[in-house]
Specification:
This protein has 679 residues and is α/β, with parallel strands linked by helices. It has 4 domains: 108 residues, no CATH class; 74 residues, Gyrase A, domain 2; 281 residues, Rossmann fold (3-Layer(aba) Sandwich), CATH 3.40.50; 79 residues, Orthogonal Bundle (Arc Repressor Mutant, subunit A). It is 39% helix and 12% strand. It has 21 helices and 17 strands. The strands form 3 sheets. The chain has a 10-stranded mixed beta sheet. Helix 3 runs parallel beside helix 5. The longest helix is centred in the first third of the chain and has 25 residues. The radius of gyration is 39 Å and the shape is elongated. The two termini are 72 Å apart. The relative contact order is 0.08.
Length: 679
């Protein structure tokens, strides 16, 4: 209904002049006039009929037959209404037609007919007025939909007045006490959809938390998601991560939103998110919708792991503080995230924050959030929100163990950190039940019908959500279950925006903007990451807007033009600076044919030499930024020096006792303790 129609309706309700009491009363009385008009019409018809048929015996027979026929027709026509309404209608017609027959033959004032009219007429009219008032005030009053409910096995259920919105009808439903429960409604939703000739996803039932037999039935007759909407940019460029992330639209056209941080004012908790969906379900586009919304905010940093070599996210790389393709880099990222959580929690506690708030990211100029004991403002730099995003997390979970994220998920929300895990099938053989339980939010895309229970809570599925009905046939269709989203929206399907080749240009512009306007990583998180994984963070891969695919920074490889002279300048080692490249090589000298270490004819290094070699190998790994190692990383080293992997395993344990290595959650993997932080 358009705004103009609403205004006209409002004028009708108030009266055209907006101040006439008479008009208002007339307007309020209009719905109750029909029964009284019926009584008056019956009296007038009786008087006129008597003038014509007073002495006609044939008219008497005809009127009697007509009276019986009309009463029977009323009873037959009312078979699809409630039993009460059917009986009320039949009695009214029988009484009115009987009086009319008598009045036409004997006269309206003959005998008791006039008294019956004066007393019975108002009573019958008032019963209909009372019925109308009761129907308006009783939220579970019966309606004319009994035939439909009878078809699906809910003949005794009562439907209240429907709330009609654009492309959405909501009606309260009350079931038969002691005979039916809300579970009965969830079971018949497919049959009800069939009766209405609608898809099963168009119907939802939201049980009343305070009743086992009451709830709301929601019907969305038109699928407004069929039209593809392409991504055209973020919803709130330059806003806060505390603002809603708009990632698409619901089937009634309203925005599909998600929140990450909590809000104590509205009682919303911070959350972690699971993004799940089968191949071809649009999960990649859904992830891009979320990620582009995140990097468009000015108080959040992102750590991203993507074993697919940033296939979908490459245009956004300049917007991330840290990005890894998987492997040892992701192991280091997980270790850094685990170390950053308690450090960030301590900072928040010292500044009297019970949870992360938007003002947490700003300089601390409020004495109420000071870390000083004298109560004055401390002026400490703020702490932006942190998102740890693990794309195709099944790969990471296989390498690190299915409990890799459990500790992070259970502790991170209090530290202003949200964990986002994306994978195709969140089943028990992909991640532990503890980790799954610690991810309270989910964006569920189409999947195999057998996997619905892994993605969505059972209550949401019972309410009508069925991502298995889509599979990969409806890319972008999804359900969102998350704090801040009204519960009646949980089973409502939405659709994310589609990313096309034209969207890539928008993503690149957004990444450039984020690289310039995004927040710097806070010192607390930096110290925790550097102290835990050292060069894996300090020499992490960095991407610039000019070349998002290149590696820059301290460990970035030098790019050399083909025509440059490699014998001059910084490309020559200092010890070789006096060598003449044109001179002949020297003759052979004694010992040049001695075998290298590790060969059968050579000698093995002594234990002390071997330990020095191992220590050097650890330093080399650290310089490369490979801070998570295990025996398999020493394969080449063992071949070179003639040692076995069991010997390396034993030496790694010794190094752990010396404080050079620290154990990880994965058996056989060790984290190199940075030299400056080594015990």
């Amino acid at each position: 209904m358009g705004r103009k129609n609403i205004e006209v309706l409002d004028d009708d309700l108030r009266g055209s002049d907006g101040g006439s009491v008479g008009r208002y009363l007339l307007h309020r009385a209009k719905p109750h006039l029909p029964p009284w008009l019926g009584v008056a019409g019956t009296g007038l018809a009786g008087a006129l009929g008597h003038l014509r048929w007073a002495d006609s015996s044939a008219a008497g027979v005809g009127l009697t037959v007509a009276s019986v026929a009309l009463t029977g027709a009323t009873w037959w026509i009312g078979k699809n209404t409630s039993q009460q309404r059917r009986l009320h209608s039949a009695i009214t017609v029988a009484a009115g037609s009987a009086w009319l027959t008598g009045a036409c033959l004997a006269g309206p004032a003959a005998g008791p007919l006039d008294d019956l009219f004066l007393m019975g007429g108002p009573v019958i009219a008032l019963t209909w007025n009372v019925r109308m008032v009761m129907r308006r005030t009783d939220g579970a009053a019966p309606s004319g939909d009994k035939g439909l409910l009878e078809k699906v096995g809910l003949a005794r259920a009562a439907i209240g007045a429907a709330k009609i919105e654009p492309n959405r009808v909501t009606a309260s439903l009350a079931l038969e006490p002691g005979e039916q429960t809300n579970d009965d409604v969830t079971k018949i939703l497919p049959r009800l959809a069939s009766a209405l000739d609608l898809p099963t996803t168009a119907l939802r039932y939201m049980p009343d938390a305070g009743s086992a037999r009451r709830g709301e039935l929601v019907i969305v007759p038109e699928d407004m998601l069929a039209e593809v909407v392409e991504y055209d940019g973020p919803s709130q460029l330059g806003g806060s991560i505390a603002d809603p992330l708009v990632i698409g639209r619901y089937d009634d056209g309203s925005p599909l939103m998600l929140w990450l941080p909590g809000d104590p004012e509205v009682g919303r908790n911070a959350t972690h998110v699971l993004i799940a969906g089968g191949t071809g379900s649009g999960k990649g586009d859904g992830a891009l919708n979320v990620l582009t919304e995140i990097v468009s905010r000015t108080d959040v940093n992102v750590w991203l792991s993507d074993p697919k070599s940033f296939q979908d996210f490459r245009p956004l790389l300049p917007a991330f503080d840290w990005a890894e393709e998987g492997g040892a880099g992701t192991e280091a990222m997980v270790a850094a995230l685990q170390a950053a959580i308690p450090a960030r929690t301590r900072w928040l506690g010292a500044h009297r924050y019970r949870q992360w708030l938007p003002e947490t990211a700003q300089q601390q100029t409020d004495p109420a959030h000071s870390c000083r004991s004298d109560g004055t403002a401390c002026g400490c730099p703020g702490m932006p929100y942190l998102v740890g995003w693990f794309e195709e997390a099944a790969n990471t979970l296989r390498n690190l163990g299915d409990d890799a994220f459990t500790g992070i998920a259970q502790e991170a929300r209090a530290a202003g950190v949200s964990l986002i895990v994306s994978l195709q099938r969140p089943s028990y053989d992909q991640m532990s039940t503890s980790t799954r339980a610690s991810l309270p939010s989910v964006i569920a895309f189409g999947c195999d019908a057998r996997d619905e229970g892994f993605a969505l809570p059972e209550t949401v599925i019972d309410s009508g959500a069925h991502p298995g009905a889509w599979g990969n046939r409806r890319p972008g269709y999804c359900y969102v279950v998350s704090p801040g989203v009204p519960e009646d929206r949980y089973p409502a399907p939405g659709r994310t925006r589609r990313f096309t080749s034209a969207s890539m240009d928008v993503m690149e512009l957004l990444a450039d903007w984020a690289a310039e306007h995004g927040p710097a990583m806070d010192a607390v998180t930096i110290r925790a990451a550097e102290g835990t994984v050292g060069n894996a963070y300090t020499k992490r891969r960095r991407h610039t807007p000019d070349n998002p695919a290149a590696q820059t920074g301290p460990t970035g490889p030098a790019v050399v033009e083909e025509d440059e002279d490699m014998t001059k300048g910084p490309f020559t080692d200092p010890e070789d600076i006096d060598i003449d490249p044109e001179a002949d090589l020297p003759d052979d000298e004694a010992g040049d044919d001695e075998p290298l270490f590790g060969t059968d004819t050579g000698r093995k290094p002594t234990p002390d030499e071997a330990r020095l070699l191992l220590a050097q190998a650890l330093e080399d790994f650290e310089d490369e930024g490979r801070m998570i190692v295990g025996p398999r990383d020493f394969t080449d080293w063992c071949d070179t020096h003639g040692y076995s992997r069991p010997w390396v395993s034993a030496r790694l344990k010794d190094a752990a006792l010396d404080g050079r290595l620290a154990p990880t959650e994965q058996t056989g993997r060790w984290r190199i303790v940075p030299v400056l932080a080594a015990a």
